[in-house]
Write a structure and sequence with these properties.
304 residues, alpha+beta, Beta-lactamase, 5-stranded antiparallel β-sheet, 13 helices, globular, acetylation, Beta-lactam/transpept-like
Amino acid sequence: MNYQAILNVIEKELANFDAGGKVPTYIPELAKVPANKFGLNLYCQNGEHFNFGDYDELFSIQSISKVFTLTLAKKFGGKKIWDRVDVEPSGDPFNSLLQLENEKGIPRNPFINAGSLVIADILISELENPKKYLLEFVRKISNDQTINYDESVAASEKENGYRNIALVNYMKSLGNIKNNAEDVLDFYFYQCSLKMSCYQLSKAFMIFANKGKILSTGEKVITTNNTKRINAIMQTCGFYDEAGEFSFRVGLPGKSGVGGGIVAVHPGQYSVAVWSPLLNEKGNSEKGMKALEELTSLTGLSIF
């Protein structure tokens, strides 16, 4: 498969694509990102990678980080984490308070904000220094020690994260947050502030395409069974209340973030990350979704 030729076609076709949407403003630091950024990197099972555009530029990965924290929670918390968070698609906005109230403080899945806050709480209970451990884990699976948190984004989220403050305190009142609410929020804001490039993200996500093993070393960091479970949750819940649309158009497990990034995996084949900051009304990168739709259409490869 000549992936670079296919990516060149996608880049050309989408050069003047009007994605509509807007850069998010509720996190002021994200509003500073130029709206015309666009890049993609595809990392293959054989170690080759192909790309175009701003594929090597760092951006805030935001909710894509929820896949990393879920991976660690499964590793340390095991099956008991499902007593505190469900695995069903939300069908509601990612920061819904109404859904949380209706379901008595049990988040619908680990990729909406409430669910990821519970996962953060679990990691605080399990790890002595979860911020350090998460960063070391991401650096390890990416084979890149330069990856770091963006302090300005973390501070911006902390100053404006009123909805997340409400979510964690509501769950605390119902007994589904065990640690200090401020500590949970601090870790959550930092995990979302991780800054990575499309190249780094696609390399990190190869563990989900490679049965839990780091491609460069062969080390197994998560079990095959957990890899399967996480891919399944990405497929059904990775795009908030637009997961069905992504499955229909793209046909791969994946996860989006309000920083404009999307990562998707084709198990046994490749991992691909795309970045375009303009978001649609559901909080996903419309141009990124279109690029991945073209990728699976032109290659004829999806999981379906």
